[in-house]
Amino acid sequence: PVSNLAALAQGALRKHGVQQVAAAIDARMDEVYWGCYKAEAGEMRLQGLEAVLPPERVAVPAGSSGDWFGAGTGWSYAERLAVQASATNASALPGALDILSLASFAWGRGEAIAAEQAQPVYLRDNVATPKAR
Question: What residue numbers bound the domain in which 12 lies?
Answer without folding.
Answer: 4-117
